[in-house]
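$ ./design --mode recover --in tokens.txt
reading tokens...
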């Protein structure tokens, strides 16, 4: 069973935050969103995180990272079963969460 968004964030029920508004509209586990909607939401969150990191690290760091990651992404697309992609995303999120 999924945990509520507040388990992973600083959101509390009825705290007036945007995440609280989203929980009220879509459920505390976003259960009223479909799979495509959740994937698009995740895509937007990742884009926000990437933009913030590029602002801190600089554009040249992003260019270097892109040259490293592009062939990996191509390999994932061609050689890793789609069923493993969500687990890989979870592993990367966990690593990023605790990386300093």
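writing sequence...
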């Amino acid at each position: 069973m999924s945990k509520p968004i507040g388990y992973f964030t600083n959101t509390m029920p009825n705290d007036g935050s945007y995440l609280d508004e989203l929980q009220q509209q879509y459920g505390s586990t976003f259960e009223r969103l479909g799979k495509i909607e959740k994937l698009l939401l995740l895509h937007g969150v990742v884009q926000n995180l990437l933009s913030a990191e590029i602002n801190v690290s600089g554009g040249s760091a992003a260019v270097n990272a892109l040259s490293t990651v592009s062939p990996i992404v191509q390999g994932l697309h061609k050689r890793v079963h789609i069923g493993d992609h969500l687990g890989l995303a979870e592993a990367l999120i966990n690593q990023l969460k605790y990386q300093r």
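exit 0
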